[in-house]
Amino acid sequence: MRPRVEEVRIQGLGVIDEAVLVLSPGFTVLTGETGAGKTMVVTGLGLLFGGRADPARVRPGSDKATVEGTLMVDPAGRVAQQVQDVGGEIEDGELIISRTVSAEGRSRAWLGGRTVPVGTLTYLAEDLVAVHGQMDQQRLLQPGRQRAALDRYAGEDLVKPLRAYEHAYKRHKQVADQLAELTARARERAQEADLLRFGLDEVEQADPRAGEDAELREEVERLSHADSLRSAAETAHRALLGDPMSGEQVMQDAVTLVGQARTAVEAVREFDPTLAGIADRLAEAGYLISDVATELAAYAESVEADPVRLSVVQERQAVLAHLVRKYGEDTGAVLAWAAQAAQRVTELEGDDERISDLTREHEELTGRLTELAAELTRIRAAAAERFGQAVTEELTALAMPHARVVVGMTAADDFGPHGVDEVELRMSPHPASPPLPLNKGASGGELSRVMLAIEVVFAGADPVPTFVFDEVDAGVGGKAAVEIGRRLARLARTAQVIVVTHLPQVAAFADQHLVVEKAGDGSVVRSGVVALDKDGRARELSRMLAGLEDSELGRAHAEELLAIAAADKA
Q: What does the protein in this record do (predicted)?
């Protein structure tokens, strides 16, 4: 299901106090006397889809202007997904869009019941509506839109090569970005690698062991206090075991005293189990003291002052302290840093090889993109030729027989997301003038007709479901006006078309006719919108033809126009 605008409610906008427009899914025309507010309807639609808010458009006496639209959309379609992405809701396929503009210039927008930035409506409008007014030909005047429109017109011939190009372009850009980053950081990477290598050399030359710094601290303490340690061990040894070589028995040693105690207890142990237990423990104590005394003797023998060894150990301490100060809190941390640094150096040295590989891939992708871009240019050029001829033929029937539309294609300096082609629609109003961009080569009224011709040619290829034309028939009449009506009806076969017109020949082709009626009491003017039935349409066309609603001649002419249009559409 293609989205369409079902109803628009306008309040406090220009001369419109309050109006409700129920729109046909096909061709809806709006007519009315000059100053009745027809253009305000187009302005309201523009506001609804993110147009610029002008506080001067707020109706005098109103504090704000409000436009609310009800759209029918596919709940599973792209538009519904965009609405859901911003937190809006769609009920039974109906989407409500609302926009207010205060007299002070403040503007607010709602989408599916959720307040959104006005820019969200503008973004959404790209998939919903194309507005063509004499002062608002924004959509197809955008170069990006013109390129996209030409691509759709080119059809299936372009789809496969364009998809291949876009895939290659994406990878080409990724490779280019990676190359740029690696190349820009080449000096930094080289400096980092040099610093890491210097540190690794220091660690490798020192060759530390995990825990070595703690071992050295213990050895320094032992060597620095060797005399005190030996003296303490010898004194303790004598206290435990005595010194039989001295020949002095000033005091008994611990082993002898414990032995005497054991002997005394052993003599009576059989009379009391408790004392027997004590005798066993004294025996164990004697053995333990003897062992300790032996170890003290051995320790005293092993400890000796060694200034040379102390100097060597202190020098080694200084080397390790230097490493710890730079690379970690102890030798274990220094070794961990060295392992990480070695891995990082490997990565940095591998970048050179990576740059080489990426450069080779970049060159291959550049060649591939060049081939694909040339193919896209060839297909677009052929489509541009067909398109220019088709639009020029349409303009001939729209009272612009000497106008010519061409599609200008120039090559960009570099690859773009869709190729190297810069596309611009150009028009020359007569054979002697060079083709100029649309907004420079056509007046306001001509531009509307050019846009109509373009949209008719694009019909079916352009996914926009709703077209709005304001005064598309400015400056024409007679047969050309009939052709404009006929082409608008043709466009309405595949899209919703809303047209503001002052020509009965155009209005006769509409599926639905709305008239903007003006009423006033001399001081306040109010306008409203009324849907016309068959008789009402004849009266309105008569007024547009002869200026008299009840003119018999005008009425007959109006009925004839309606009959001709109905037969043509049938």
A: May be involved in recombinational repair of damaged DNA.
